[in-house]
Structure prediction request, 641 residues.
Amino acid sequence: MAKERSERRKRKRREKTFNGVMKNSLYFVFILLILACAFLIGRLVWLNNVNGDEYARKVLSQQAYSSQTLVAERGAITDRNGIVLARSEKIYNVILDPKVILSHDYYVQPTLDAMSECLGYDADEMLEVINNNPESRYLVFEKNIEYMRVSNFNKYKNSHKFVVGVWFEENYSRVYSYGNFASHVLGFMSKDGGSYGLEQYYDEYLTGIEGFEYGYYDPELNRQKTVKEARDGYTLETTLDYNIQTIIQKKVEKFREEIGCNNIGVIVMNPNNGEIYGMTSNYEFDLNNPRSLEGYCSDEELEEMTDEEKTAALYKMWRNFCISDTYEPGSTFKTITVASALEENAITTGDHFNCEGYTEKGGWRIGCNKKSGHGTLSLAESLMKSCNCALMEIADRLGSDGFFKYQNLFGFGNRTGIDLTGEATGIIIPRNKLNVTELATSSFGTTFNVTMIQIASAYASILNGGEYYAPHVVKEIKTADGVAVRKEESAPVRETVSQTTSDFIKEALYMTVEAGTATPAKVAGYLIGGKTGTAQKRPRTEKKYIVSFVGFAPIDNPQVMTYVVIDEIHDPEIAGSSSSATRMTSEIMNEILPYLGMYPEGDIVYTVDLDLLQELESKPMDEINEDAIPEDYEDVELIQE
Prediction:
């Protein structure tokens, strides 16, 4: 009995030991299996996310495989009111799969009949193309066919099961709704993407992201496919106003036809946020046919041109004069000099200056625009009569350091940052070379170069109370569904002048229009402010001029500013007078002010010194002196107002 009990105890111990080992082993194996499965699942997920497209292509390549790119629709461009200026229209490419068509004899003739009847192709020609490419799986037969032909073919194919190996690849064609509207601002499409203007600057936003379609034919010759959808490009809502842009283009075209000039540019801008309402430059060209020189060159000129000359003419036609060309600003810069000196307390609004018709600076005798001299002038009169001698004294008080400091503060010598391609920096005299003579001549806008957009932006900052905004053409970027992707906040970049200086300049420039050198800028029922400019080009002896005018309204709180620059007016009798630019500004403002909701009958309170204005209006206007530049002075430009 004792022995039996001992055996039973031993057997129980063995069973207990065996069961424990087995359980632990089973647990271990189970855990290993779980870990292995988790690893495999994780690996599959990782491979699918990282290399899924590649493996899908490899799998499909083992079958009757085909693929195509799904082109993203390029984003539209609109004006500030939603008028579509540029859009993409869907077109189709005819794609053939000769290998599938030739895979069975009973596919060939029905397919040829379908293409002949629905698409208008010659059956014999089609057969030759297919037989010459028997192994091809992707053959582009024709590009850019219209939707109606595609629709007819698809309807036919649905009722004829032996029509195979033909499908249509979607693509897009760029269409500009109004031809030559704002062509230098919008830019155009080339085979490499956007060229010039907004099309190039915002190409990444407009282009979108391509999709892909991986396809194969199953045993029943049904085309199966896996699609990764394209993401269409974003829409640009610009600051341009269709009506304002149309007005300035018509004015420029009229001037070119009636008088003519080498170059001309117009910028209409909101001085309170840097928004460009309109910008036109020289000859606007047809955006739907941007490589045509028709209208830019005569037929006789085109016949005589070499290919190199035609290319050079195209680049010149596409060039945006408003941002890419530089010139000496002339007297429009006098406003900048006065504002700078006021900010540095180098002068006061009550100061007076004496003009004898010339000033000696650095051994040079530099004349004024009135050879007999203006006599004693107040600071406001110095701007009104555009007196060179007064400005030279003001710059002398400001000093080279102060003058150079404010040239940079107002953005000269640097890009403004406008969202257009091809912006130039201009050229200013370095501080270490800004000597007595250079400072004197720079004070009235000579011996350095600027761009139109630099002058416009600098003036805007003075008119709005001293806040410098980067000029811009795009207001908002959004998806096709209207969801904002990026919005221009219009925050000021820096401060240039005080409100006190701004108020004085606005009053002085109003008086310049009412009783000074800019009286042709008047608009009936409105109080307009502005400054003229006439710069003599180099070489000085040729007496060729760039004339300009900056105008704004209303005086107390400017809401719109227009800047007109005309390079080498063809009529010699008015070539040296800024009156052409001044009158064009008046005509533009006369049309756009009511459009912008500013009416003559509005109750506007102006802070103009009316007593001073009446006194000035009673004085005769100074006669423009065509011989203001001394014969013995060749290198320093003098302005004729």
Notes: Confidence is low (pLDDT under 50) at residues 56-64, 602-607, 620-641. The CA atoms of residues 250 and 588 lie 10 Å apart. The chain has 20 helices and 23 strands. The radius of gyration is 37 Å.
